[in-house]
Amino acid sequence: MITFEIDTEYIELIKLLKATRIADSGAMAKILVENGEVTRNGEPEFRKRAKITKGEIITALGQSVKVV
């Protein structure tokens, strides 16, 4: 599991996917979300700009990220 530290209140989902290199680009991140390939705390997340906060776990393409 990847640990990703934020120093703000939240990070947008597609920005998190790019920052952790799960997605190579913003376009790829958007496609992953649109196709339902991203889960947020175990539930599918379809909002590209969902506000991800500390303590949440995002999973896509077999990789998990814990935001701290």
What does this structure look like?
- It comes from Butyricimonas virosa.
- Keywords: RNA-binding.
- This protein has a single domain, classed as Structural Genomics Hypothetical 15.5 Kd Protein In mrcA-pckA Intergenic Region, Chain A (Roll).
- It is an alpha+beta fold and 68 residues long.
- The model has no long low-confidence stretch (mean pLDDT 98).
- The protein starts with a strand and ends with a strand.
- The longest helix has 9 residues, at 26-34.
- It has helices at residues 13-19, 26-34, and strands at 2-4, 11-12, 38-40, 43-44, 51-52, 57-60, 63-67.
- The strands form 2 sheets. It has a 5-stranded mixed beta sheet with strand order 1-7-6-3-4, with no helix packed on it. It has a two-stranded antiparallel sheet with strand order 2-5.
- Strand 6 and strand 7 (63-67) form a beta hairpin.
- It contains 2 helices and 7 strands; from the N terminus they run E-E-H-H-E-E-E-E-E.
- Helices cover 24% and strands 31% of the residues.
